[in-house]
Amino acid sequence: MDAQPVMDLAAAMERFDGDQDLFLTLAEMFLERSPAALAAIQTALADQNLPMLAKEAHKLKGSAMEFCARPTVAAAAQLEESARQSAVSDMAAIGERVQAEVQRLTAALQVIIEKGFPS
Amino acid sequence: MQITERRIGQSIILDLTGELSYANRTTFKAAVERSKRAGCRHLILNMQGVRFLDSSALGTLALLAQSFPAAQGMVSLLNPQSYVKEIITLANLHQILPVYNSEQDALAGSRLPAAG
Amino acid sequence: MAEPAHRIVDDPLAGKAAKPMPVILLVDDDQITRISMAGRLKRLGYRVIEAGDGIAGLAAIRAQRPDLVILDWMMPGLDGPSVCEAIRADGELRSSQVVLMTAHDQPEQIAEGLSRGADDFLSKAASKQEVLARVQASLRSSALVREIERTRDDLDRSHRLLSAKQTELESELQSAADFVRAQLPLPGMPAPGVSMQWAYQPSLALGGDLFQVSVWGSETLGLYILDASGHGVAAALRAVALMTFLREDNLAKVVGSFDPGAIITEANHRFPLTQDGEYFTLWVGRLHLPSRTLSYAAAGHSGAFLHSLQGVSQWLSSASLPLGFDPTISFDSATAQLLPRDRLYLLSDGIYEAPSPTGELWGRDRLQATLESHRAHTLAHSIGDTMTTARQWLKGDIFPDDVALLGVEVLDGTAPAKEKS
């Protein structure tokens, strides 16, 4: 099911021109922020607050893009699109997927923060 | 202003066409200088083709008359036309520059001027 | 450890002012994406200023004048396109180089961004190479615009300097013109029994035509009109020099008499042709007031007309050479007898050589007829109206040559002048 890697580290390092310090700074910021971000999405879904949902999903998508975390980006993009299109029927399911991908991503980032970059 | 030079014996005739004015005084003076250096006893300025003359040109002609000391030769004017002739007459230029009506007369006047 | 006596600096930039790195302003409310882009730009060598929203961004542009502004599109409050519009609406800021960040390359986004003032676009997903390429291209444009603005400012400065210089020069010319005009006689009565009026209009601010009426010795009125060949400042300067020669005290000293012929003969010696062939024409008159006898002489100047109410009117001129044409000759005086209420006019050729639009000159005959037509009018009226008539001939106000018209009237015995209008 999860055939795709959670993030393309090589691509991300290419993006940051090998700047490991920058990567780690951003990773720590993401880890710090992600609980609140996920909570905001949950609240928006519960309240059916579509504009808020679109905004939060867009923001999450942007952050995930920095790490070349394609599955997370795809899920967040889909959630954003549903919110914009008011396609309420699938929203909950997509919301679940976003949650799952974010957890995978934060786990992967945690490993790098603690254990360093694979050589 | 167009200037052509003709040499006849010891005389040089400068055929002038156009306007004698402040604007082209340098061209005129240069042509006169050339003729003087070529050595001539009588410099004849053919005014037949001159259709305009201003006060600056009058002054230039007067200077020219003064720059030909009697021992070296003379300068004269040939055939000034209507308007130009009037200006020359009003300025009494003929008192210091002989004015001839025909080329023959002008060339015949090529003797060194006697006193008076 | 001893310091070396001197160090040879092998640095290609030594002694040259280092060109400062371009400054980029990055405006993005999302901290992660902002820090990411800022970090990437700094790694490429640029100096980066960050702002967290549109308002702060605008303030930073005004304060820092960055070489490039990169704006995120979606921001709370003032979004990217709105900041663009604000930049373009501001006279000081509107030539800034602005790049809008887009999430994807959506065609409609680009169209909207362009219409709201963006210069270029950069995707947040852009690779390092693309970021570098876009930023470099934008900085090149920015540098070009700066260059143009600098050139324009230099031009403005030069233009202002030139205008100031021009104003200064015109003011000096006007001062000179005022000085020359101040040499002219005050209208009115230069001597008992004589009234005088004049009109004077140089073709440029200054001209070479000047005249004077003043008392020479006792019971004698000296009058003259001179014309320096050429135009403008040079002619005016020469005219003033001749005028200085013609002052009463100088004539007494140098000529030894007020005889017009003697005066002109001396002037003929002292004022030769210049090396450019410039010269003067001159008319000098001396009026013995008790007898009203006028003696006069001329050097090439034929602008003297005696309008006699009771006797015969005549032009007081004879064939003569201008000053300097033949320094060896001498000039003789002629005489004329003035009767009461006779008018003597001195005038420059600029007035009778006034051309109509078809090029026909007004001529001395028409001038004479005009002067004579004012037989019954005051001298002032005669002069004023003659100028008006000349302008009508000209069909304009600007004469191509300097115009001077002076009138002197010998009044009736000792009775006050009968003024008819």
Automatic annotation (TrEMBL), chain A:
One of the GO BP terms on file: phosphorelay signal transduction system
Domain annotation HPt: ranges: 19-112
GO MF, one annotated term: protein kinase activity
A Pfam family the protein falls into: Hpt
Keyword list, A-Z: Phosphoprotein
Keyword Lipid metabolism: no
Keyword Phosphoprotein appears in the UniProt entry: yes
Gene3D superfamilies per record: HPT domain
UniProt cross-references to InterPro entries, sorted A to Z: HPT_dom_sf, Sig_transdc_His_kin_Hpt_dom
Modified residues (Phosphohistidine): 58
Name of protein: Putative Phosphorelay protein, contains HPt domain
Species assigned in the record: Nitrospira defluvii
UniProtKB/TrEMBL annotation, chain B:
MF GO annotations: anti-sigma factor antagonist activity
Gene3D superfamilies: STAS domain
Sequence similarity: Belongs to the anti-sigma-factor antagonist family.
Organism encoding this protein: Nitrospira defluvii
STAS domain sequence ranges: 1-110
InterPro entries: Anti-sigma_ant, STAS_dom, STAS_dom_sf
Database matches in Pfam families: STAS
Protein name (record): Anti-sigma factor antagonist
Chain ranges passing through the membrane: none
From TrEMBL, chain C:
GO biological process: phosphorelay signal transduction system
Example GO molecular function: protein serine/threonine phosphatase activity
Domain Response regulatory: 23-139
Enzyme Commission identifier(s): 3.1.3.16
Residue ranges of the TM segments: none
UniProt KW keywords: Hydrolase, Phosphoprotein
Pfam family, one: SpoIIE
Modification 4-aspartylphosphate occurs at: 72
EC class (word): hydrolase
Stored InterPro entries: Bact_Sigma-Reg, CheY-like_superfamily, PPM-type-like_dom_sf, PPM-type_phosphatase-like_dom, Sig_transdc_resp-reg_receiver
Name under which the protein is recorded: Putative Response regulator receiver modulated Serine phosphatase
